[in-house]
Structures are given as C-alpha cells and as structure tokens.
Amino acid sequence: MRSRPFAFPRPALASSEMATSQISPETTPKLNPKLLVANRSEIACRIFQTAREMGIATVGIFAPGDEEARHLTYADEIVPVVSYLDSVAVVQAGLKVGATLVHPGYGFLSERSVFARAVEKAGMTFVGPTPETMEAMGGKIDAKEIAERSGVPTLPWAKVKPGESLAPAAKRVGFPLLLKAAAGGGGKGMRRVDREQDLDAAAESASAEAIAAFGDGTLFLERLVLEPRHIEVQVFGDGKGGGIHLFERECSLQRRHQKVWEEATAPNLSDETRAGLFEASMNLVREVKYRSAGTLEFLVDASGEFFFLEMNTRLQVEHPVTELVTGTDLVHAQLSLALDPDTFPIPKLSPPRGHAIEVRLYAEDPAQGFMPTPGRVDRLRWPTGTGIRVESGIEEGQTIGTSFDSMLGKLIVHAPTREQAVARMRFALSETVILGLGTNQSYLRTLAEDPLVVAGKIHTGYLDSVYAKFEPKIAPESLEMMASARAQGFGKAGVLNPSNVQSDSRNSSYPSPWVKERGAK
Questions:
Q1: Which residues lie closer than 8 Å to 309 by C-beta, 6 or more apart?
Q2: Of 289, 359, 484, 499, which sits 20 to 30 A from 313 (CA to CA)?
Q3: 364 with 477, same domain?
Q4: H or E element that contains 289
Q5: Last residue of a domain, one of 308, 329, 352
Q6: Do residues 148 and 30 both lie within one domain?
Q7: In degrees, to the nearest 5, what angle opens at C-alpha 295 toward C-alphas 257 and 423?
Q8: Residue 521: is it exposed, middle or buried by C-beta count within 10 angstroms (0-12/13-18/19+)?
Q9: Spatial separation of the C-alpha atoms in residues 41 and 382, rounded to whole Å
C-alpha cells in the first residue's frame, strides 16, 4: 500500500443533504465493514462519499499512470493494482487490506461474472447482482431469450453461428438491420446494414471490433427502428423476486451510440407507454430474481410501441438523475442490501418530483471530430447553486492523459419543471470553467439551446445527423478568454443567484426512502 499522493481536502456535504442522510441504529453497518471500490475517477468518488456517510471504511485502488487520480484522496486506504481490468489483482488487493465489500462501479469489471464470483469465493461480498444473473443477462442473445420468455417485447432478431451465412437470417429479420456484438456495449461491434450485399463486409468489421473490445466476436442481427427514442427503466431488486422500478430515463441524445445528455423522467411519453415499460421491466426483475440496482433499456418508436434492447446489470453513469427525482441514494441502497440481505426492505416510492438532466463533460474537441485533448487542468471552477450537482474525477493541477476514459465529470441539475431544468443546465454550463485542455463544453451549451432538444423532440440519430460536423458559434480563443475571466471572478454570475449547495454533493431535498424506511429521522 502507499500513502495517498495528494492531500486535496474532501468536499464538505451540503447542509441540506446532511440533514436527510443520517443513519439510524438499524442501518448502521455491522462487523466493521470495509469497502473496496474496483474503479476510479468520478464514480469511485461518488461511491466513497455515500460509504463515508454510512460509516463504512473505504479502500481505493490505482493502476500505473493513475497516481494523480482524484478518487485516491477520498479513500481511507489506497493500494496499487497492475490494471483495473485485472480481476485477480483487484481481488488480491481486497484480501490484502481486509475488505468485506467490493463495489465495481460501472465499466471495467462491473459486468463480469467471473470477477463477481471470484469476489464471493474470496469471502467478500460483491455489491451488485449475482454472478448467475450477470451471466444470464450479460449476453444480449441470452437476455433477449429471457425477455421473450417473460413476455417482454423484442425486435425481430436472429442468432448467427460462426461461419454461417448471414443472408437467410437477414431476410427473416428484414432491412435495414443492425449487426450487433453479443457481448459488451457502447456502440462497439455495431454496424448498420441496408443491403444484403453489404452484410459480409459489415460482419467482418463488427466482429473484429467486438473481439478487440470484449474478447468475443459473436454477432446477432436485429431489425433497425428508424429514429427511435432510447428509454431506460431503473430497477432495484432484493434477489428474491421482489423489487421496484424507479421510473424511466430519456437517453436518446447519443453520439455514435454513446450517451451525451440524459434526463428523468422522459418528456413527451404517453402514460400507456410508460405503464407498459414499467410492467415489462418488473416482469424481467421477477423472472431472474434480480438483486441490487440495474437498468433495462428499450427502443420506443413513433407510435409509442417499445422493444427490449438489453439489461445493464450495474449502476449506470446517468443514475444521478433518477436519484434527484426520487430522493433515493442508489449506492446507499446497494450497500444496505449487501450488508443485510435478509431483512432489507423494498420501499414504496412516491411519484417522481421535478425534472433532472445530466450531461457528460469530456476532454475532447467536437470541432475536430471529438479527438481527445489531453493536458493539464490549469484552472477549474464548477458551478454551484440550488439544484446543481457535480460529480467529477479531476482536480485543478491534474494532468489528464489518454490511458483512461476522457470523461472529466458530470453536470446534473434538478428543478420543478423540465423547462426550468433546461434553463438551469444552460446556467450550469455557462458557469463551468475548465482551462488548460479542450472540452466538449461548447457542444453541450449548443445542445442546451437547440429548439428541438429544449422541446424534447429528439431521437437516437439526431446528434449524428444534425451535428455530424460541429462548428462552435464562438471562436475557441474567445471562449477561453471568457472562461478565464469567469475564473478570475469577473462577469455577471447569472440570474439564479446560487448560494447554498456545494459541488460534489448529491444535492436533494428529499430523504432517501431506504433510510426513512429503516427509521432515520
């Protein structure tokens, strides 16, 4: 183990949140639990914060080249690993420090059943679904078969065996179609095919990409829905067949199948479609006896008909928007269930309150094809104010390289209405200052002013068609001068007059129903 390389102060919690996050004797962890987070950057920071509130000791890990990572300043202990993807090294790190819990975050090892099983075999508790559920739902083909067995609608699709001709299956599915990797996600191993003569070349390319990304080149074919919406449902199960949905999220603003802007709840969605999504999601939760937090993803066409895509057996990047409209700390719920699975209560939630939006800030240049922009964070100022939440993985003075994901942080806003939430997001983006390296901040500000985005009339292909080539309205040097002036404290602060919320807090004026259910005041 090493001492932490930096001594950045831990962020103070907002007073409003401290008042609603007290832990009662019934929820106080037993047997001195210690949590290792098998991840890095902003998600590790976010998990550590909830663990601290619960009185759980924390352990952070770091791989070579990541010694400056911000999450290391949040953990009570830190230990090096060969790689974040080395499951053996991560398990050994947990045993070395005496961890009793392992939370995988998202990405990396979060959906690898082999890792979850190794954690459990080593005597630690995996904070997430069972390895068996991860195996069942992790493969898109198996997940579709389970969905169909549960009565959940799916698109026309077909399996493709290695060496099998694609043409017969493609004719059954129909054109246009998508070739998709059976393992993984994030748009990797995915190709659109409009004509039979393009099948073989697309399959070869998609399979090669899938092998490089996931170690598995298995593909399947699926009917392509033109201009669909991407709607997902957050669920939480007790592992015994019980559970709840925590409403839906709109994730249709995507660039090359990567989410850019997410919100809860989904605008312009009929009550009938919403009810159908919830019923289908809970059918699947009961079918697999799902445990912990998970997300079911659906495509919704123009008529409101929906089709199951896949299940993410982990916490999602966009989980904060659900937390803000429900008042639920999903990580608190995950840890509580892991600590006490026998008596953990599934609460009844009230209707969602207000509207929340999240955007992802990356070190990339939209005007240059979204190329990575590594560099040093010379100046950093996050927005503060009522209804603004920041989850970041960077500090001023930190060097951002290309060895890890380029996401710098997430801006999340919450307001009584969607219109106010969009306005608050514009304000939050205008008040964010990141100097020293390029970011996609101007791109996100443009989206927040786009009339169709503001109206919620978007689909999954909108960004790739309308913003295929992005040109900032203001020259980069002018943007940098404006940001520098804001960093120095010049310029009008804005009309919202922010005053009482600290960055990096999970700001919500609503108590977590899990805490309330178990007796917290």
A1: 230, 297, 298, 299
A2: 359
A3: yes
A4: none
A5: 352
A6: no
A7: 65
A8: exposed
A9: 16
Report yes or no on 261 lying in a domain: yes
Shared domain check, 178 and 196: yes
Question: What does the longest C-alpha to C-alpha distance in the chain come to?
Answer: 66
Report the chain's terminal Cα–Cα distance, integer Å: 38
Residues 161, 117, single domain; the answer is: no
Residue type, 291: R
What residues have CB less than 8 Å from 402, skipping those under 6 apart? 372, 374
Are 177 and 290 in the same domain? no
- Which member of 223, 314, 424, 426 is catalytic? 314
Q: In degrees, to the nearest 5, what angle opens at C-alpha 63 toward C-alphas 62 and 65? A: 110
Encoded tokens for 115: 């890792």
Left, alpha or beta for 407 (phi > 0: left; psi -120 to 50: alpha)?
beta
Contact 408/41 with Cβ under 8 angstroms? no
Let me know whether 297 and 249 are in one domain. yes
Whether 314 is a known active-site residue: answer yes
Q: Residue 176 maps to which CATH number?
A: 3.30.1490.20
Residue 50 CA to residue 39 CA, distance in Å, equals 15
Domain count, the chain: 4
Domain extent for 408: 354-490
Does the residue 251 lie in any domain? yes
Helix (H) or strand (E) holding 118: helix 113-121
117 with 162, same domain: the answer is no
The enclosing domain of 266 has a CATH number of 3.30.470.20
What CATH code is carried by the domain that includes residue 33? 3.40.50.20
Verify cis geometry, omega within 30 degrees of 0, for the bond prior to 265. yes
Helix, strand, coil in percent for the chain, rounding step 5: 35, 25, 45
Q: How far apart are CA 245 and CA 234, in angstroms?
A: 6
Q: Examine residue 510 and state whether it is found in any structural domain, yes or no.
A: no
Residues 140 and 239 in one domain: yes
Q: What is the pTM of this model?
A: 0.84
pLDDT digit of tens for each residue in the chain (521 aa)? 333 332 222 333 332 232 223 223 344 445 699 999 999 999 999 999 999 999 999 999 999 999 999 999 999 999 999 999 999 999 999 999 999 999 999 999 999 999 999 999 999 999 999 999 999 998 888 899 999 999 999 999 998 777 778 899 999 999 999 998 887 666 788 899 999 999 999 988 988 898 888 888 888 899 999 999 999 999 999 999 999 999 999 999 999 889 999 999 999 999 999 999 999 999 999 999 999 999 999 999 999 999 999 999 999 999 999 999 999 999 999 999 999 999 999 888 889 999 999 999 999 999 999 999 999 999 999 999 999 999 999 999 999 999 999 999 999 999 999 999 999 999 999 999 999 999 999 999 999 999 999 999 999 999 999 998 888 776 555 566 666 666 666 543 332 222 223 334 343 333 344 443 333 33
Look up tokens 């592992």; give the residue.
239
CB atoms within 10 A of CB 304: 13
- Among 330, 352, 374, which residue terminates a domain? 352
